[in-house]
Design a protein that fits this description.
single chain; about 190 residues; mainly alpha; 10 helices; about 0% strand
Length: about 190
């Protein structure tokens, strides 16, 4: 990946965006981002690719595949409640939906295209996906390092390094748990 420079990042972001539109689980793509590009760049590329992909799916749901999306969502009673909440509180509800796994991320993109929320508010609410992307990219980074160590690649091997990695993983998972629980409670109140 390093040999391709910024082209690798651009190609990965495009693949991520296409994957989101094609309903590939975004978590898998974010894990790959962390494994391939490291934590900071992995989070950044996952966020950019996810934002582009989710916005494309949102617009497809709103304009391109409206009849197909409406038919599929008719069987989901939770969507009616989400639609009412989005109409009342807009981007705040979508932000909470991004924090909480109430509905699959990729299906939610298409479904929200049928609501009254503006594209800009939808994109702003996408910031709610960052905690999940942090956890997934971190998991990918750790997994990539574990694979490198298993392949006899050079890597730090002292106990403090692994203690910091473990503490970071525990803190990230705990923070995500708290954010998810808070978002679920807030959504129940809507």
């Amino acid at each position: 990946m390093h040999a391709y420079g910024s082209a690798a990042a651009v190609v990965f972001i495009a693949i991520f965006a296409i994957g989101v539109v094609a309903l590939v689980p975004a978590t898998v793509l974010a894990v790959a981002a962390g494994a391939l590009f490291g934590l900071v760049h992995g989070i950044l590329y996952a966020f950019v690719g996810g934002t582009i992909g989710s916005t494309c799916a949102f617009l497809l749901g709103r304009h391109g595949a409206r009849v197909l999306v409406e038919r599929r969502l008719a069987a989901m009673p939770r969507f009616v409640a989400v639609d009412r909440a989005v109409a009342a509180r807009g981007w705040r509800i979508v932000f909470l939906l991004r924090l909480s796994p109430v509905m699959p991320f990729n299906v939610l993109n298409y479904a929200l295209g049928l609501t009254t929320i503006s594209v800009w508010d939808f994109m702003l609410a996408g910031l709610g996906s960052i905690p999940g992307e942090i956890v997934a990219a971190y998991g990918g980074k750790i997994g990539g390092e574990a694979l490198a160590l298993a392949g006899q690649a050079e890597g730090p091997k002292d106990a403090s390094y692994y203690a910091v990695l473990l503490a970071g993983l525990v803190a990230t998972v705990a923070a995500t748990f708290v954010v998810t629980r808070t978002a679920r409670r807030a959504l129940r109140d809507v």
